[in-house]
Structure formats: C-alpha cells, structure tokens
Amino acid sequence: MTPTNDELIAEAMTEEAPLLPLLHRIHERDGYLSEEALRSVSKGLRIPIADLFGTITFYHHFARDPGGFEAPRVCTGPICCLKGAHDLVAQLDGATGMPCSGRCDEPIPVIRGSQTFVGLSASQLTLGDTPVPPAKVGDYEECVFANIRSSDRKTIEGYRQTGGYEGLEKAVTSMSPQELTEMIDQSGLAGRGGAGFPTGRKWKAVADAKGGPKTVVCNADEGEPGCFKDRALMDHDPHAVLEGMALACYATGSPRAFLYLRYEYPETEHLLVNAISEAEAAGVIGDDVFGTGIKIKIYLRRGAGAYICGEETSLLNSLEGSHPFPRNRPPYPVTHGYEGTPTAVNNVETLASVPPIVLRGPDWYRNLGLGNHSGTKVISLSGDVARPGNYEVPIGLPLSTLIDEWAGGVPNNRSVQAVTMAGLSGGFLAGDDLDVTLDEPSIRAKGSFLGAGGIMVFDDSRDMVEISHMAMEFFAEESCGKCFPCRIGTQRLTERLAGKAGPEDLEQWLDEVSDLNKTMKETSACGLGQAAPLITESLLKYFPQAVQTHVIGE
Amino acid sequence: MSDETGRTIFLDGEEVPFDIGETIFQVAERYRKDIPTLCYDDRLEAFGGCRLCVVEIEGARTPVASCTTMAEPGMRITTKSGSLEMHRRVLLEMVVSENREVDVDELSGYASQEMKNLVDRYSARTGRFAGDKSGVSRPDDPNPFILRDYENCISCYRCVRVCAEQEGDYAISIMNRGFETQITTEFGGLLKDSSCTFCGQCIQTCPTGALGDLKALRHVEVEEPIEKTRSVCTYCGVGCALDIMTKGDQVVGIQPAMDGPANEGALCVKGQFAFDFVHHPDRLKTPFIRDDHGQLVPATWDQALDKAAAGLLEAVNEHGRHSLYAIASGRAPNEAGFTMQKFVRAGLGTSYIDNCSRA
Ligand SMILES: Cc1cc2nc3c(=O)[nH]c(=O)nc-3n(C[C@H](O)[C@H](O)[C@H](O)COP(=O)(O)O)c2cc1C
Ligand code: SF4
Ligand code: SF4
Ligand code: SF4
Ligand code: FES
C-alpha cells in the first residue's frame, strides 16, 4: 500500500536529518512535490511553510508539477554539449537540461526518475553502467584503484578477499584513535575534494573539539563538472568508502556518519544502501563494531541538485533541512558542523584512501608520490582524448604523460589547445603552461589548482570563448545567491561571454571583465565565486586574440 | 570595551581595545570608521552577503567581511585602502546594474536611502556592467500597505531575516538561486494569504525601497519637505517610540524609532499603518454632551467633566459604590492607567477596575 503523508512524516520524525529523505519519498511516490504534501511536511517537521517552499525551489531536481519526477533530464555540461546534448534535449519529449551529471567518460547521460540512460541520440539510449577505471598503464602503484577492477568487489565477500575491513579491525582492536590519526597525518594524505586540507589534522581538530556527539560526513556530492571519480569509487568499491568512513568515525570519536550523495547518482544510492546493510549484518559497522562495543552508524542522504551543496557548510545546511547557503567561517565545521557538533567532512576519495594506508602504513602511501609529493590522486580525464576515464596518478606525474601515454593522446591528429583544472574551478591551462606536473604546488604556480582532479581536454578546433561561456553559465546557474559579487558577477561574465551585453569597445570590455574578475576573486563569500573568475582570467591570459575577435569581430 | 585585559586590535594602525564576541565591524563602528554596508542591520544576525564591509587583515590571503569576522587579539586591520575602495565601488556598480532605478522617495521607508547614498558616495552611477535586470515586481498584490517592487531588490535578505528573527513570522523567504533569486511568500502568493502581520518591519529595513510604505507613498506629490517628530504610539501600553512624518500640517506616515527603548525599531501593524484617524473628517475634536432631546452637541471640557462627575455621583448615591466598573484603555500608558485605578479606588471607592487588554 502507498504510504500516506502522515505515515511518511511519522517515519521521518524518528530519523536523523529527516527533511531530504522525506521529500524524496514523496517526490517518488507522487511524481512531484504538491502544495498539499509540502504543507503537511511543514506542519509535521515544524518548518515554516515559506522557508520550506523557498528551500525546495533552491534545488534543481524537485519537480513542482505532476509528472516532473519522470521527465527526462539531459546533461548539458561542457563535454556533453560538445557531443550534441542540446539536440538530445530537443529530441526528447518534455526534456530539460541539467548541469554536468558526472558521466563525462560516457555518451550523454539522461536521468528519468531513478534511472540513468546514456546515448548520443534519442533512439540509442541504453541503461548506463559506470565504466571500470581503464587498465593501469604505467609502472606506478595505485592506492584506491589497486583492487577495484576485480569482479565481485561490490560485495562484502569480494571486498574482504583482498584485506577489506582488516584495516578497520586492526584500528579498533589494536590502535588508539590518536594513533590512527597520527598515522594518517604521517601519510601526508590531504583532502581530495578540492581544498587539499591535511586529513590527519582535520580529524585531530574534531577529536579535540569540545561538545558532541561528533559527526563524520562523507562528501559524495561530486558536482564539479568534469569530475566522475567518486562515482567510480562508490560504484565499484562501495565498501572501501564505508570502511574509510568508519575509520574516520573511530579516529574522531563519532558514533555517526552521513554520506551525502548527489541526486544525479540514483543507481549508486541503491548500491550503497545494500553495502551498508551488508556491512551492518557482518558486524563491521553498526552497534557493535568487531565486537568492541563501539557504535558507528552510517546514514545515506541524497541531495536534490545543487553544486553548492558540495561546499561543506552548504552541505551541512542541506543535511539539516535549512536553506543551503554556505555558512560564514570561522567557526569551521571541525568545531561547529552538523547541528553545531564538531564534524569532519571528507571527500569520497580521501576516505577510500584510508583503509589501504592503515593496512600498508603511512610510508608506503607517502612513497607512492613522485619526488617529494605524497600519495596518489584520481584524475577524471574527459574531452578530446582517445581514452577518457578515471586514472589514478602518482602525485607529481607530468600532465603530458597522462594525456599522451596513458589516455592515448588527442584523436584526429589534433593537438591540445587547453585543459581545465579542478573540473572547471581551476580555469584553463594552455600554451607553455601545459608543461606541468600534476601536483598542487606546480599547478598553483600557474595560477590554477588541481582541486578535485577533473581535467577536460580541448583540442585546437574548439572555440575557447564558447567553452568559457558554457563554464561561466554553469557557475551562474549554480551560484547560490547569497553574496553580491558572485550572484551578479557570474551573470555579467556569462552575458559578456555570450556576446549578449557589455561594451563594444575592446578596452572597456576588458576593463569591465577584469574588474569583475578581481572583485569576485577577492570578495566572494565562498569558493564558487572565488574560483569562477579563473575561467575568464585564464581565457584573457591565453587567448587574447580570440577574445578580441569575440568583442570587436575579425 | 575594557582594556584592562590587554585585548586589543590595530585599526588602521591605531591600537584599540575590544570585547570578546565583538566583530571587527562593531569595533570599527565604535571608532567611527564608516565602513559601508548594505546587508547589515544591527538588530539582525550578521549575514555576510553584500561584501561591502570587507577589510584587510595582515597575513590573510583575501579581504574578509568585517561584519561576520570576530575581532581577535593582535589583528592588524585596514578598513580603507585603494583596493578595498575599488572593490566597494565595483560591488555598488554591480547592484546599480541589476536594478531599475537608484533614486526612490524618502517616504518609501526608514532605510530606503542607504543604497542611493552609498552609490553617490562611491560615484557608482557609471552604467558599467549593464545586462539583465533581476527581480520580478508584484503589482498584482493588492495589499494597501506594502509595495513589492522587486525590480529594485538587491537580494540582501534583510526583509526575510527581520521577518524571521525580529518578528518570528516567517512570512517571506528566498526563492530560486543566483541571479534568479526572488523574495517570495509561500508558493509565490499574496501577502494576505501568508503569515504576514503587516508589521512593516521588512519595509523599514529595506535599503533600496524595493519594499515601500504604500500609505506614505500616497503623499509623494505633496511639495513640502518631510518633518519628523518623535512620539510614542498611542495604541497600547508598550509605548513604542516612533517618528511621525509630516508634510506641512499633514501626517504622511510613521517610521519606527530605531533607538526606541521599548521597541528598538519594531512596530506592529497598528502603530505602523493605522494613523488615518488623525485627519479623518469623523474624528471628534471636542467633547459632546447629549441634550434633553438625545442629540449630541459640542461642549467644553469643563462642561463635559462636570456632567460626567454628576452622573457618576448619582450612580454611587443611588446604587452604591460597587455599581460602577471601570476599564482602562489598553492604549493608555502606564501612568494614565495608574491614575485611572487611583481615581476609581480612592475617588469612587470601588475596586472594580480592569484593563481592556485583560478584560
Ligand atoms: C563550490 C564548492 C563545491 C564543492 N564541491 C565538493 C564536492 O562535490 N565534493 C567534495 O568532496 N568537496 C567539495 N568541495 C570541497 C568541500 O567544501 C570540502 O573542502 C571537502 O569536502 C573536504 O573534504 P576533503 O578534505 O576530504 O577534501 C566543494 C567546495 C566548494 C567551494
Ligand atoms: S560565492 Fe557564490 S556560491 Fe558562494 S556564497 Fe557567494 S553567491 Fe553563494
Ligand atoms: S510586514 Fe512584517 S510580517 Fe509581513 S512580511 Fe514584512 S516583516 Fe514579515
Ligand atoms: S526586498 Fe529589500 S530588504 Fe528584501 S532582499 Fe530585496 S533589497 Fe533586501
Ligand atoms: S555588511 Fe558585511 S557583508 Fe554586508
């Protein structure tokens, strides 16, 4: 029998972070969020109706008209646009575009209800399946991908065949939380979600913070265009992510952890639900971890379509059911996170790196990097390369080695014109700056950053102004609207890159754009608005001629 | 403000003391630094949206919003520099570019000139950053009090925050995101169908006049200058301080007194909007006494008081002192209420006295 609003609400009220799961259940049950249902939710969860309404409209995917849940959403991210995404939108009845949905290594993805299809035209759509990372090319040892290609890796039995959950067992039975944290600190592991903060230090800060219960959050929002590594990890190695979360819980003294999954990965949700129940049934997480009496509960929560919800404080607001604006920092989540408790927010890849480190030791991990760099990084490589996909590289690997030797180079006898860094957030590298190694200091020296490790490759036939326009349009659509420089700046830059507004005089045009760049970079309230102008900045730096043609013609 | 603790920061080179929990902006304001703001209202939790209040802290990578950043011992802060002033001007040029107009009538509301004044101070009417305008106005909302002219909205969310934090009404919220952001009620409806109490607080905190006082705006065309007279609301015993705005002899509107000791800028719908009785043709201007034919005829105060005293005495004499029952008006201030009960107890000799807000 279909549950009523009241039944769903009563169920939700017994749960942690109830708003999003409740809305998803109603969304799936009714095919949209009706006014009547929202009024019941407002009453039941005691959220003012105006606030609830405003918050619903913040998310891309909550439909407010009947049938909206099943209506096709076509990825119109930069790479999919190059593959003809807009034609596909036109071909499909009732279809709308959605921002990059994290499948740049596949044909164009289309989400319908809870299923993802992929294809280049309406007649070719087939159910999507996450590609396994391409076979290892170089001699370098991998960390998170080392065992990911084995076939029954998704099941707990398969995972345990190569030492799965042994790291957790070792930690909870023979190490103190401090020893574990110390070990991670020594490994040099730093955040793989964008900001690169040292993981051991973050855990220590949470462990040392006053108040509780403490909380771990696995950030699986993966909204950065051109990033699809977290999906590969979760789809092919879900238990590694869960084990990493449990280790983070043990290190920080948290009895609970949330995995915040982006809306656009519906299949991953089911997979993770299964993995969590398998792990609970096996007693490796849950109320009595490995018979030690330690309690570690893992909750899965799903976003509803908002890139900013990957920003950790916006994510926390979203989990709590409030309007997902980023919070003002300090205080940081390590002291004031989920519901004000000390919280460690970590990326999927960061957490998946932890179990192998615990098993093989910090020195092993440290030595995986080249030169004096520690460890590895998964790069999501897409665009004009022969073999797009996720590659785990030793930190410090030359970019050209990755593109030419590992991924088969640029097809059609073309050459690299530009690549993006950090998905889109790092802007472009081009020209001589393509001669760079994949590590944060080298890339920062060129005015960009490695971040979450998405790299899109554009060959010499691509129109860089048009690509910049698509990139800026993404930031404009995803700007949360909290702060002036980003809310207005992303819009104005998009209009200028589209040729829809702005001075006709080149010098004035450049003045306006660089003033916007500077003020956005220096005064925006969060990383989105600070990073968006890297697109225009690098466009002006590497492609002044193309910009001139765009503004004043040939 | 104690400096016995040795807790100090350096503000533009000058060492100044501060209290724990004070933001850089609060300290700077105390030292009259005149940092510009648009999303700030000192009654509300600092929000950090407009970014005009950015200051430089020595050692920090980028400027920080002074309204949301706590002062910490030893901080070296610059409140004004070439680059800060450049950012402030660019930010103002940006908000000018998204609005229909900068100049709105002062009658719009208490804070309605904030944006205009800053735009002029920073010479930001340059026409730069032209492009789409933001915000959809709601001329379809027929309420007689609040103009909802969102084409002049700069998304500072002061209205939403005052409604939630000060009023506890949660009538309005923020819809969509980014440049599409829009102030809304539940499901985009009319204010009268929301939990709005028409207190007018959102109008008075709006820095652009996007929300305007419709009753006051009826008098825009009257040529005379606006004069403000501090007074106390006559509706209830709280005693909210307010400024009566007049043009010549005409009361044109009410604004709350932000420094009112009882209300700190708050008013309710009555104090804010219910002043039409002042100039109403039916308004009583002298006492009236009913003549032998039952007709009301104008009288002097002495005549009226004599008549009332005689009537009260007659009732006491004929039916006893407990035949009288007095109700003090809820609109009377405490002092008047006190006098009333004194008169009833000592003068008439009964304890049958109550107040209308209880009765
Ligand atoms: C606009 C924006 C979007 C972000 N999106 C993500 C994301 O999708 N996934 C993620 O792990 N981190 C994201 N981050 C970084 C998080 O704020 C945070 O630094 C990270 O989750 C911390 O985990 P880590 O230390 O393991 O990297 C984003 C940051 C910004 C500013
Ligand atoms: S920078 Fe953009 S996304 Fe971040 S708070 Fe400001 S408006 Fe929101
Ligand atoms: S008039 Fe008062 S109750 Fe109504 S929206 Fe404004 S602040 Fe809220
Ligand atoms: S209506 Fe006024 S107070 Fe409300 S957000 Fe817009 S500008 Fe700010
Ligand atoms: S006053 Fe500080 S950001 Fe607006």
State the gist of this model.
With 554 residues, chain A is α/β, with parallel strands linked by helices.
Layout of helices and strands, plus pairs?
The complex is a heterodimer of chains A (554) and B (359).
Chain A: H1 5-12, H2 19-30, H3 35-45, H4 49-58, E1 73-75, H5 78-82, H6 85-91, E2 96-98, E3 108-112, E4 115-119, E5 126-127, H7 156-160, H8 166-174, H9 177-187, H10 199-208, E6 215-220, H11 229-236, H12 238-252, E7 256-261, H13 266-281, E8 297-302, H14 312-320, E9 343-347, H15 348-360, H16 362-366, E10 376-383, E11 389-394, H17 399-406, E12 416-420, E13 428-430, H18 440-444, E14 454-459, H19 464-478, H20 484-498, H21 506-523, H22 527-531, H23 533-542, H24 544-552
Parallel strand pairs in A: 1-2, 6-7, 6-9, 7-8, 10-14
Antiparallel strand pairs in A: 1-3, 3-4, 4-5, 10-11, 12-13, 12-14
Helix pairs in contact in A: 1-2, 1-3, 2-3, 8-12, 8-15, 9-10, 9-12, 11-12, 12-15, 19-20, 19-23, 20-21, 21-23
Chain B: E1 8-11, E2 14-17, H1 24-30, E3 54-57, E4 64-65, E5 76-78, H2 82-98, H3 114-121, E6 146-148, H4 158-167, E7 172-175, E8 182-185, H5 201-205, E9 211-213, H6 214-217, E10 226-232, E11 241-247, E12 250-256, H7 269-273, E13 288-290, E14 296-298, H8 301-319, E15 326-328, H9 334-348, E16 353-355
Parallel strand pairs in B: 1-5, 15-16
Antiparallel strand pairs in B: 1-2, 3-4, 3-5, 6-9, 7-8, 10-11, 11-12, 13-14
